[in-house]
């Protein structure tokens, strides 16, 4: 069960626009909303859901507007909030800015949108690409084409019929971010891989795509347990993926949206060998100067190369007169960040580079701040994944039988990648 009514209020709580979907609620109950919000603010007890008698207010604030849904039933809270945030997204895609003025300028259009996105309190078509096919900014297209597109009445609500491309192409990017925290005594405290598969699809018609990965569960169920495979955790799919099919035989089968989208995301909590290892020796000389010796080592295979590597080394707030010496790359002092950034444009696997930095310090010692900031590393390694995930195949099935060659890229980059120093 979802919302009975939806309102858009200004910052003072005045109703700008509203839509009653179920007719089971007194619409004037919204007058109680703003006093309740102010009361909660005064108590310091703000919550996104406020109960008044047998009515629940679910709300989100955007700029100077409140978007409020009301319900008397036992509503699906996650669904209601997902709908309100989707509504903000739709309005933004239509009006570019969402504020009082854009609501006042687009009353007719907003009512048309509210009629389409929800029916009797249940969310319907919320894909702005599909909505824009038959609800245009001038709002007149409905008179010319009263029949909604197939996507609205079809099970495939994220793709329109009749898409045509002269050249059919699919681009697939496997992007993995490495989160790593290393203690000052070189122990890995936390390591995790967060991955996603992004797609750009330029295909004609209504194609069915099937993606095969070296998924451990699939390999074990088909007697290939000893082959190199990956155990994916916390997998989340785009709505186009047929979940029953995946749960049944681990096949990722889908009719893709047109253009760019994220097909899936996953996580692996696993011991990751640090791809770029950084060691630091920091020497303070009688409060007058400080010296840094930093060693960076790439611990991945020689055939791979990390691009645009940045090693961010924190320095004292009162440091000045920097001098640098490096075996490779370039250094710059960034006083506003109290850091030295050592940049290495291209860092091949199995290499080791050194950097020395020397700073003067004022004669009066600055107070030590609690806990030293860690060294941070930024990088991007193309044609490489830490998890070992592989796209085994991407089959494209379309009734016209055209051929399209998928292009697959792998990229590993830093996530929250930190090494603590002594």
From TrEMBL:
UniProt subcellular location: Cytoplasmic vesicle, Clathrin-coated vesicle membrane; Golgi apparatus
Specify the MHD domain's residue ranges: 167-420
What InterPro entries has UniProt attached to this entry?
Adaptor_comp_med_subunit (IPR050431), AP2_Mu_C_sf (IPR036168), AP_mu_sigma_su (IPR022775), Clathrin_mu (IPR001392), Clathrin_mu_CS (IPR018240), Longin-like_dom_sf (IPR011012), MHD (IPR028565)
Question: Do you know which Pfam families this protein is assigned to?
Answer: Adap_comp_sub (PF00928), Clat_adaptor_s (PF01217)
Domain of life, per lineage: Eukaryota
Task: Sum up the protein's function in the record's words.
Answer: Subunit of clathrin-associated adaptor protein complex 1 that plays a role in protein sorting in the trans-Golgi network (TGN) and endosomes. The AP complexes mediate the recruitment of clathrin to membranes and the recognition of sorting signals within the cytosolic tails of transmembrane cargo molecules.
Protein name according to UniProt? MHD domain-containing protein
Organism equals Potamilus streckersoni
Q: What is the lineage of its organism?
A: Eukaryota, Metazoa, Spiralia, Lophotrochozoa, Mollusca
């Amino acid at each position: 069960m979802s919302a009975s009514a939806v309102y858009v209020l200004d910052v003072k709580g005045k109703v700008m626009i509203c839509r009653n979907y179920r007719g089971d609620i007194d619409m004037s109950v919204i007058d109680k909303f703003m006093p309740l919000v102010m009361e909660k603010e005064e108590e310091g007890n703000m919550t996104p859901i406020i109960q008044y008698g047998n009515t629940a207010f679910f709300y989100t604030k955007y700029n100077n507007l409140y978007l409020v849904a009301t319900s008397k039933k036992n509503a699906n809270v996650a669904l209601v909030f997902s709908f309100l945030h989707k509504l903000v997204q739709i309005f933004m895609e239509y009006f570019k800015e969402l504020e009082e003025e854009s609501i006042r300028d687009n009353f007719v259009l907003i009512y048309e949108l509210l009629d389409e996105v929800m029916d009797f309190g249940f969310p319907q078509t919320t894909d702005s690409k599909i909505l824009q096919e038959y609800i245009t900014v001038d709002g007149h297209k409905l008179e010319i084409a009263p029949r909604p597109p197939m996507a609205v009445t079809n099970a495939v609500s994220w793709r329109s019929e009749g898409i045509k491309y002269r050249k059919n192409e699919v681009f697939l990017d496997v992007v993995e971010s490495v989160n790593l925290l290393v203690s000052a005594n070189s122990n890995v405290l936390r390591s995790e891989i967060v991955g996603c598969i992004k797609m750009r699809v330029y295909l004609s018609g209504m194609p069915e795509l099937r993606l095969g990965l070296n998924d451990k569960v699939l390999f074990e169920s088909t007697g290939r347990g000893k082959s190199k495979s990956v155990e994916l955790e916390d997998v989340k799919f785009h709505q186009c993926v047929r979940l029953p099919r995946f749960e049944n035989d681990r096949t990722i089968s889908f009719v893709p949206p047109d253009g760019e989208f994220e097909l899936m995301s996953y996580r692996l909590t696993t011991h990751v060998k640090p791809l770029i290892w950084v060691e630091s020796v920091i020497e303070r000389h009688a409060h007058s100067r400080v010296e840094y010796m930093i060693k960076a080592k790439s611990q991945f295979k020689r055939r791979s190369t990390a691009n645009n590597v940045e090693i961010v080394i924190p320095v004292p707030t009162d440091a000045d007169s920097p001098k640098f010496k490096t075996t490779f790359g370039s250094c710059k002092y960034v006083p506003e960040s109290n850091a030295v950034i050592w940049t290495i444009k291209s860092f091949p696997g199995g290499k080791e580079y050194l950097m020395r930095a020397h700073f003067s310090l004022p004669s009066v010692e600055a107070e030590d701040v609690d806990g030293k900031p860690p060294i941070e590393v930024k990088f991007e390694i193309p044609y490489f994944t830490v998890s070992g995930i592989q796209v085994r195949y991407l089959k494209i099935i379309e009734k016209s039988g055209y051929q399209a060659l998928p292009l697959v890229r792998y990229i590993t980059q830093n996530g929250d990648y930190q090494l603590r120093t002594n």
